Amino acid sequence: MNKKIFWIASFPKSGNTLVRAILASLFFSKNGKFSFNLLNNIKQLETFKTLDFIKKENPVDYKNLSDLKVLSKYFLKIQDKIIFNLNDNDACFLKTHSAFFEYFGNQFTTNEKTLGYIYIVRDPRDVALSLSHHMNVEIDKAIKFMLNKNASLKYTGNEKIDIDIKPPMMIGSWDLHLNSWGYFNVPKIFIKYEDLILYKKKTIIQIINFFKKTYNFKFNNIDEKIENILLTTEFNTMKKNELKFGFNESVNNNSFFNVGKVKHWEKKLTISQINLIEKNFKKEMKKLNYL
After folding, report:
1. Is 137 in a helix, a strand, or coil?
2. Which among 199, 192, 202 is positioned nearest to 290, based on CA atoms?
3. Handedness of CA 187, 176, 173, 14 (dihedral sign)
4. Which of helix, strand or coil describes residue 38?
5. Strand, coil or helix: what is 36?
6. What are the distances in angstroms from CA 201 to CA 39, 41, 196, 206, 227?
7. What angle do CA 74, 176, 98 make, to 5 degrees?
8. Which of 119, 116, 47, 38 has the alpha carbon at shortest distance from 81?
9. How many Cα atoms sit within 13 Å of 158 on the Cβ side?
10. Which of 1, 18, 58, 83 has its CA 20 to 30 A from that of 289?
11. What pLDDT is stored for residue 273 in this prediction?
12. Three-state DSSP class for 2?
């Protein structure tokens, strides 16, 4: 493999962490047993740490990274820095919640840097519930975020950064995010969160076959790995481990692993909330058999 990036992309709260847990167990463990520290092998692009080099390269730009026009100039440079630190013939996994847009003439990423990607999609009605819990906001506010074509989140991390610098991670609306990645013409696999929950073994095998066929990747003791992945990435197991060991991706003192169910929205959303989501995302939801 050349030095390139394999993306794990999704709208927030769509199952990105579960897919990363599966990939980390497949690629970075001997027996497929998952633990949170395995996720350290799959970095997120949008962290404060990835911006450190800009402070030396262009202090003025660094001070203005809250401006997307300035920040977007460095998207590809950030990826170059990550690729540069790889060993020869290595590739890396990168998590992102960013939409695949062009910003002020600056591409988010390119075919030359990208090996492929997995995109995880989830019923937007369940996304609204999970997002509400994760962001510690009312459901109506979470839905408003999902409908906002200019929705953004801040870069993450505990590293020290100037309090006035708030680099934006552009998300876009739920449908724009989904469609933006669909246009990226590189090897890809789309996975539904619902299949991860209801048909996990089948989905894991789908992922394995994708890497075998597309990249001729060979997995060792794969049957043992699959069985251990099924056991150690079971939702309640991960939830218990979060309570026991903590999880650095939780925010606002909320548990990251909340419910992890399919069609939980049926009991929680009001008729008007359901209608609002279905009206705005009707085309995509029908295509994905959510309607």
Report:
1. coil
2. 192
3. negative
4. helix
5. helix
6. 20, 22, 8, 9, 8
7. 30
8. 47
9. 4
10. 18
11. 98
12. coil
Within the chain, what is the greatest distance between any pair of CA atoms? Answer: 55
Q: Residue 34 corresponds to which tokens in the numbers above? A: 């998952």
Q: 3-class DSSP state for residue 93?
A: strand
Are 25 and 32 spatial neighbours (Cβ–Cβ below 8 Å)?
Answer: yes
* Domains, the chain: 5-287 (3.40.50.300)
Mean pLDDT by 10 residues, the chain (291 residues): 85 94 94 89 92 94 95 96 86 96 94 96 96 93 98 79 81 98 95 95 97 94 94 74 51 51 91 98 98 97
- Tell me the CB-side half-sphere exposure of residue 142, using CA atoms within 13 A: 22
DSSP three-state, residue 138:
coil
Say which residue the tokens 């497929």 belong to.
32
Helices (runs of H) and strands (runs of E) counted in the chain: 15, 9
Looking at residue 256, its pLDDT comes to: 47
CA distance 58 to 6: 28
Tokens standing for 71?
Answer: 């920040």
The tokens describing 13, both together, are 């709260």
Q: How far apart are CA 208 and CA 153, in angstroms?
A: 32
DSSP reduced 3-state for 263: coil
Q: Helical H runs in the chain?
A: 16-28, 52-57, 59-63, 68-71, 75-84, 124-135, 139-147, 174-182, 193-198, 200-215, 222-232, 235-245, 265-268, 271-280, 282-287
The pLDDT, as a whole number, for residue 250 is: 45
Please give the structure tokens belonging to residue 136. Answer: 């510690």
Sign of CA dihedral 22, 28, 188, 84: positive
HSE-up (13 A, CA, CB side) for residue 106: 14
What 8-state DSSP symbol labels residue 154?
E
